[in-house]
Amino acid sequence: MKHCAGQIKYLAAIKELSQTNDSLRCVHIARHLGVSRPSVSKMLRCLANSGLVYEDYCNSVVLTPEGRAAADEIFSSFSEIYTFFHSFLKLPHEEAHEQALRFISEFPRDTCDRLKKIVKNTIRKS
Predict the structure, then answer these.
(1) Do the Cβ atoms of 33 and 26 come closer than 8 Å?
(2) C-alpha–C-alpha distance, residues 34 and 18, integer Å
(3) Which of 25, 38, 92, 114 has the most CB atoms around it within 10 Å of its CB?
(4) Residue 14: is its pLDDT beyond 60?
């Protein structure tokens, strides 16, 4: 399933924040992404309508099985893309993380897969 850049950004944020928060709330997502709480609510409504988060997102934001699968697919290229920005381009951790997320959310999937392959091959040769 193809997701828009905004959905990808939010799914990635929910996946990351879920790893450190037992009860993920809209305010956590808003702070993490630097957006307003109404913006988060609007996107969560969209994600709920798409079946990616459970409807009861006002109390706690939880990915559905479909949402977890989508987030896992998004992150399938993340570590290699992050490695490219951090190790190859020598960007600091936070900047490399931000750039990697932007890359996987805004570039076509095949471009991410191609960069992932190049990074893997380069690391293997090292």
Answers:
(1) no
(2) 17
(3) 25
(4) yes
d(CA 49, CA 67): 11
The CATH architecture annotation of domain 5-72 reads Orthogonal Bundle (1.10)
- pLDDT, average across residues 43-54: 95
Does position 1 have pLDDT exceeding 70, yes or no?
no
Give per-residue pLDDT as tens, 50-73.
999 999 888 899 999 999 999 998
User: Is 78:104 a contact under the CB 8 Å cutoff?
Assistant: yes
Kindly list the domain boundaries of the chain, sorted by start residue: 5-72, 76-125
